[in-house]
Amino acid sequence: MKKVIMGNHALSYGAMLSRSQVIAAYPITPQTQVVELLSEMCADGTLQAKFIKVESEHSAMAACIGASAAGARAFTATSSQGLALMHEMLHWASGGRLPVVLGNINRAMAPGWTIWTDQNDSLSQRDTGWIQFYCASNQEVVDTVIQAFKVSEALAIPSMVVLDAFALSHTYEVVDIPDQAKVDAYLPPFNPPYRVTPDDPRAFGGLTGPEHYMELRYKLQKDMEKVPEMIERTGREYETTFGRYLGLVDDYLCDDAEIILVTSGTAGYTARVAVDEMRDRGLKVGNLRIKVFRPFPFEIVRRLTQSAKKIAVVDRNISYGHHGIFAQELKSAIYGHGGYKPVFGFIAGLGGRDITPASFREVVDTTISHERSEEEIVWIGVKK
Amino acid sequence: MKPKKEIKKVVFQSAEEMPTMPMSIGNMLWNKTGSWRNIRPEIRLEDCIQCGICWKFCPDMSIEIEAEWPVVNYDYCKGCGICAEECPAKCILMVEERK
Amino acid sequence: MIEMRFHGRGGQGTVVASKILADALAKEGNFVQAYPEFGVERRGAPVFSFIRIDNKPIYDKSRIYAPDHVVVVDPTLVEAIDVTEGLKDGGWIIINSDKKPADFKFPAKFKVATINATEIAVRNKLGTLGAPIVNTAITGAIVKILNLTKLESLLEAIGDVITIKPQNNQKAAREAYEKA
Ligand code: SF4
Ligand code: SF4
User: CA separation (Å) from C60 to A171, A271, A377, B9?
Assistant: First the structure.
């Protein structure tokens, strides 16, 4: 069934079709409609789930952790400052190996007070042990939530499904809403090996001495390493049923490209428009949109950038004192694999400043006209 | 119901044999945390007014109500003294643990 | 690809108008993208909403700066702001107004159409006399002038989106369609 829906409702539909059993969330702009629709769905019986009202995002995640530990499929959504407040609990979910799925609307961090998009909120949670998906369309949001539950539950690692504030959250697009019976066949009920139950009482997340802690972390990392393969496999399964492949990256004209743009989120779609224009001008440019940021898809990124002469990474985020976060990842991915290849790091679109096809033209012009990047960061559109 | 099993410290020799989730390796039915206690609550039932406050306040759910009277479950009571503090009849005494 | 901008005031249902249009277009197999002005909306203040329409997937997620057409839901805005900002040559300016197109002094490179959506809305008891809800009526005129969709698809979309007095809204859209 095709429907015109906003990105926030795409998250709600994803959670509904996944038959989430517990939803706990605290409202924050620009995430509000996600939970509004879910609470309506819970009230009118469309979704058989317990909706838990909480007093903060920290409690929202705590409630999801409790629910997941008890064997329920748990979903929440937040943004920016709300995600920051959840930080402690994010570690509890991943450390506890609880496959919660969280929708995060990318909103820049205050101050200055802001509600517009950039990725510093979710990327600040890089090392919490969560899988991170970055979406570029409302269709991808619905599909990815369903896939995220499948991947998370198979490997006992929680997932964050990330979308840009306004450019997706409040933008209406045509979405093919997957059929419930087919989703049920793709995503069977959550059935963890252990759960909080009076029949087999255990303490979860208790004191763990130096003789065991490191092994727990080793196991989390080992399972994280299995995620890329799992995403590709479940993505192909999804394609068989629904006709849409859900992979680690979205590569556009990379095979013969001399310059590859590395992008993410909605800017990763806008980049395609610029690539088309530049191809018309005879420039061999391709676009590699990174969809899964954690675990970073090293192998496929290496393979797709192999024949390119230069790489231009466009970051809608910044690691102060270093540079763009995707640029760092890209460099670490290709280091030691093949000869030297210049990586240009661009920063654009912070705090909701628009990233347009013209921004990418500027990026490509700079990349073409320089042998190697003269500065660690090339700023796009900043009033210096 | 309660298996008579000794609490033994389990040390795994490999990551593989460990469960994925960080959780008590043993079942809590035999992992009796009451051994951590060094003072114990004793209830003078003759002064007890059966208000149930101790039952409600115990953070370890170690006070059970049996036939309307509070009874301490020493298998799990950690001796924190909260029940004694909260008891309005002041009929719970914290006494030195007899080893 | 067609790109359009709607001008209205907060609370007039400007965003809903673009959503209805998006729904109607999607019913006929088009790809659409409709979005409000990014940010906070205040009742009574000038607001925008936007729509992109194409027969293939729309990848451009940047904002619309040079629309093909503009729609002015609130006639007082013509005086208050420049509704032609960025408007492409030959583009339509569709205004909710009781005046004739020639009464507006826009550069000749633009085409002007007027529809008295306020009168239609009042007659169909949409909103109140002081604050009529004109967004559904105006979609009828847009669809006709720009030849975007069949009237039936629009009426169906209004039935899907509008929960209060859907029939009156459909009637208003039909009247505007016929008059435009
Ligand atoms: S001492 Fe503490 S743990 Fe023991 S019964 Fe009293 S309140 Fe519970
Ligand atoms: S709090 Fe004191 S008085 Fe009340 S039930 Fe417990 S022991 Fe008895």
Answer: 12, 8, 25, 60
